[in-house]
């Protein structure tokens, strides 16, 4: 039932060649149809054929004067690989991911109104990112000529967005776990009630527009025991592992796209090979902006995991702690310590600010090398 809220997003992904399992109105996930796989192949062929417009430039290619062709070809390869990788892994991993998240939210037993509001909030914030991207696409079509690189990046953007939406959910669930642990630590009793949010529009708007990632009114929603919290965390750990299998190589390619686009962008601007300055800046910076959003969510997730460990330790050393709880708390602490919720790309890059800063420093280094190379040619 939980994945019914992903139906609009999955339909958009299917349209742009990123095949996802079909989700019924009841929230049941079904296997990817052969028609969707065929449609993905047609999208790949369309992307490749769009580069026929550059055939004349390939014949007389001069890297000193046509450096921008290099990132364009790089974009083509990366986006084709995104669609191919997605179709190779999508069905099996997505079905497993759906099952794990459905099981997690069955344990959470959240009210349907709370889930609906959370997804409205999530779609609101990711829609802002999407609208910004669409504005640049429209401006590129209006002021440039084929191939439209930003239009070609839609599969990359949707695949990254799919990862971010799931990390967003995992982060909100971790905050729910920490709220429950804080309640156990302070020995307060929760009131098991569902707040009336239907008749409070101002409260809803404040929640939706607030950038904080959490469920509304979780502090008075449902009581959980420690075994339930362990089970929920174990499911979240499994979901992160599935996301790494599904999106690990794609995020690795995204980091490569961010690096190459930025290096070539800086080089062509300094070497005055730019025809439309704002377009080059947009092509160069958008992958970095997407990466920053991912780093922000993953960093918040890492902090919540640290907070979980701290809360468990505080409960263990609390003299008022019920002795029967201590074995479960020890198991919970070991589970969190050994299975940290941290997304990595192919076990090579953590999606973190340190990775982003390191990539930007490499962009500066290689841009200087390229600029010196071009000025001496």
From TrEMBL:
Residue intervals passing through the bilayer: 38-59, 123-142, 148-171, 251-270, 276-297, 348-374
One of the protein's GO biological processes: signal transduction
Keywords (A to Z) from UniProt: Cell membrane, Membrane, Receptor, Transducer, Transmembrane, Transmembrane helix
InterPro entries xref list: 7TM_chemorcpt
Membrane topology designation: Multi-pass membrane protein
A GO cellular-component term linked to this record: dendrite
Localisation per UniProt entry: Cell membrane
Family: Belongs to the insect chemoreceptor superfamily. Gustatory receptor (GR) family.
Record's function text: Gustatory receptor which mediates acceptance or avoidance behavior, depending on its substrates.
Protein name: Gustatory receptor
